[in-house]
Design a protein that fits this description.
By secondary structure, this protein is α+β, with helices and mostly antiparallel strands. The chain has one domain: Creatine Amidinohydrolase (Alpha-Beta Complex), CATH 3.90.230.10. Helices cover 27% and strands 26% of the residues. A five-stranded antiparallel β-sheet has the order 8-7-9-14-15. Strands 1, 2, 4 and 5 form a four-stranded antiparallel β-sheet that branches. Strands 3-12-11 form a three-stranded antiparallel β-sheet, with no helix packed on it. Helix 1 crosses helix 2 and helix 3 runs antiparallel to helix 4.
Length: 251
């Protein structure tokens, strides 16, 4: 069941999103050669708790850490550990925050030092696909219209869209209805109506979109071993347009 949010509820989700932005601003400068993903995770948890929030992912279905940190061919749900980042890595950093009973969810992909143009493009296109989806929005759109817009842009740039994972509704729960695939057909799915809050998260691959889960039961990787990128923000549809609750303007 889809639960539409009141203006007050959207404001509380925005406040959770502001904490997520503080995490990004603290972590991004630390994404350098030699740092461990566990160290980055520790920074994230510290920032969340200092700002009155709770790490939404920690303990969720048994996930052991605060952030999902996925490197290179890892698409999503990477578990922070003693791995040290190296020059040329690309790093997806996905964070969830609970604040006053409401959730926000967001992800960014960054690179470590110098990387090739293809990896720079891979990172850029995930963000641009998100932007194209929102920029194309028209009254009367359904989920499928948004999904198709994201898919068409990614594929037009020569990349592919992960099919096995999707965005989602969010609010009192971390994952709510409806699902928001990054591919689809126009005119299908739930209406994008005022009060709907979604975590929209394009996942883009440099090679084939097929993925598999590692033996740890969490980390999702591309089957062909090629790199992937991930961009996510939590957005609200309102009578006055779309509000990005975890974007740069949220802080």
């Amino acid at each position: 069941m889809i639960e539409l949010k009141s203006n007050r509820e959207i404001q509380l989700i925005r406040e959770a999103g502001e904490i997520a932005q503080k995490v990004f601003k603290a972590v991004q400068p630390r994404v350098v050669e030699g740092v461990t993903t566990d160290e980055l995770d520790g920074v994230a948890e510290k920032i969340i708790r200092e700002n009155g929030g709770q790490p939404a992912f920690k303990g969720y279905r048994g996930f052991p850490k605060t952030a999902c940190i996925s490197v290179n061919e890892e698409v999503v749900h990477g578990i922070p550990d003693a791995r040290r980042l190296q020059e040329g890595d690309i790093v997806s950093f996905d964070i969830g925050v609970k604040f006053k009973g409401f959730f926000a969810d967001a992800a960014r992909t960054w690179h470590v030092g110098r990387v090739g143009q293809k990896d720079k493009d891979l990172i850029r296109i995930a963000k641009e696909a998100f932007d194209r989806g929102l920029d194309g929005y028209k009254p009367g759109w359904r989920i499928g219209d948004l999904s198709e817009t994201i898919q068409k842009y990614i594929e037009s740039q020569g990349y592919q869209v992960v099919r096995d994972y999707a965005g989602h509704g969010i609010g009192r729960e971390l994952h709510e209805d409806p699902q928001v695939p990054n591919y689809g057909k126009p005119g299908r799915g739930a209406k994008l109506e005022p009060g709907l809050v979604l975590a929209i998260e394009p996942m883009v691959t440099a090679g084939h979109y097929a993925v598999e889960t590692l033996a740890n039961g969490w980390t999702v990787v591309t089957k062909d071993g090629k790199n992937a990128s991930h961009y996510e923000d939590t957005v609200a549809f309102t009578e006055n347009g779309i509000i990005n609750l975890t974007g740069d303007e949220a802080s």
